[in-house]
Amino acid sequence: xxTVERLIVIVLFGGVDLLDVTGPPEVFSLARRxxxxxxxxxxxxAAETMDPVTTAAGVRIxxxxxxxxxxxxxxxxxxxxxxVQVDGHGRVHPLTDPAVVSRVEQLAGRARRVTSVCxxxxxxxxxxxxxxxxxxxxxxxxxxLAADHPLVEVDADPIFIREGDVWTGAGISACLDLSLALIxxxxxxxxxxxxxxxxxxxxxxPSGQSQFSVPLEQVSTTRRIEDLRHYIMRHIDEPLTVAxxxxxxxxxxxxxxxxxxxxxxxxxxxxxxxxxxxxxRNQLESTDATLERVxxxxxxxxxxxxxxxxxxxxxxxxxxxxxxxxxxxx
Length: 330
Known about the structure:
Layout: E1 6-11, H1 18-34, E2 41-47, E3 53-54, E4 60-61, E5 65-66, E6 75-80, E7 84-86, E8 92-94, H2 98-108, E9 111-116, H3 120-126, E10 134-135, H4 139-148, E11 153-154, E12 160-163, E13 166-169, H5 174-187, H6 189-199, H7 223-234, H8 242-249, H9 253-264, H10 268-286, H11 291-297, H12 303-314, H13 318-325
Parallel strand pairs: 1-2, 1-6, 2-5, 6-9, 9-13, 10-11
Antiparallel strand pairs: 3-4, 7-8, 12-13
Helix pairs in contact: 1-5, 1-6, 5-6, 8-9, 10-12, 10-13
């Protein structure tokens, strides 16, 4: 295999998430090792200056070069990590420094492909690189991405999405899945599989596979909807219908549906299913309960209903989910 030089540039800026920056280089370095450097990856960290950059974790990182140093170089892959700020109410807000956005826009023009990690998608969107494209980001900021950039088709479920020469990744750890996908695109599935084995990862979670987290923490503004949510949690193992919830809330069925749509952006039935799936996930991860037991205690009734919900919500089966994510007794 002949060596092809591929310059991978990772953008550095203050407050960046540490794993967003350090994850991809680890994966690409393993590709070099597994192919005896035939992969030709040259991974560099670029920042505005050569001063140390302090990450969100407090760890300082030294850049390899500045953005200006790249002004005449051809970039194979531009990797844009993310950064967030948490407000006093615990809400997560992605950071999009205009200076960083401007630099990313400039660098993207010289890159064969552009990728974002986690909330780095907000930076790509601000640079206009996601307009007219389908993209993903961490589920906690997906609604904001869609609201701030209506030209972007936001899909919060997949681990990563490829749209031509633009790739977007979901959660922070999904940078590993995304990097494996880039290697598979460059060097083939066989080499990517060898790298995945070194990482003790599954090659590879399909790009369409769910982020494996049901977002149950939507912020509601009324006491009534909070009361209904707590009621659902307390009675999740029982048959729950719209009529049951409406009666508990002393409102009509249509009003209940309208409240859920306005406050949580979903229907009562879909919300109940999401709570049940989340409860089942926790049991599959931490207990040795049978699927029949999980289905019963989580309100699915039958294992068939449990399986269908997992396929619909997480694009996998309860058995496969337990095999991958079990942390409890064998």
